[in-house]
Design goal:
With 273 residues, the chain is of the alpha+beta class. 38% of the residues lie in helices and 27% in strands. The protein has a six-stranded antiparallel beta sheet with strand order 1-3-2-6-5-4. β7 and β8 form a beta hairpin. The protein is elongated. The chain starts with 6 loop residues before the first strand and ends with a helix.
Length: 273
Amino acid sequence: MELAPYFYASPELNLTEYHIRKLTQSFYGVGATSAFLFLGEEHVFTLGKTTRENQILSQIKTQFDSLEGVARVEHPLRIGSWKEGEETKQAILFRIPHKELFIFAILVQGHGSEFSKNRWLFLSNTISAYLSVGVSRKAKTLLSFRSFTEVFRRKVCDSLKGFDSGVLGLFYLQDLSPFFKPLGIIKSQEILREVSSTLQAALLPGELFFQLNVRSFYLFSPGELVSGVNDRLQGLYFPSKHMILDYRLKLYQVSREIAQDPNQFSDLFMEIL
């Protein structure tokens, strides 16, 4: 009987078996016999065993700044090689796209292993999707599907200091998955970046922005009324050069009392999913 692979996941991730299985498959897809995932200098996930684990983790700690400087987004970079018995192994650094934080994986492979760009992009997309990251250098927050509501609620409470209420908004984008294959990965990623950039450009100072996945974007406007936010966002459109995008927008008035009550806020959040 085949044994399940060894893994370690930070408790903060709240990963389900489904998430772990998908991450494992994506790492195996690029020939990894073991792997380590980092958010900044924080080691949050390990897959498999290697005799060089201590050396790899020490190298990350002592050379973090220089590795960040040379790592290119979604371009595998070999950072070491060694002998294990009769086999030669190599360590590959793979950087995941993020505008603020250095998110990366270290993979152990057979020396000289090469895989198609599509497999590396699949790894990148899987990490981005199943770890759903909302981070800043001042306050890193790991967002999983189960922990997102509570993390979002705390951010809303902080933003409501000095206000009685605010407006919670959900942009729910049309399902783009049928277009990903004909458009290709690069154009599909361009569309998602265009959507995110358009929404963030519409924000006022002090407003919150979260992206849960490729379809769901959340905004919170402290001190605002639904009517005001609706007037401001009603005419918003996404100027994609590849296709016309459709979306649904829902707005809810959220009082400080609702935001401070996890149950009430969770019920509202589930309603808009």
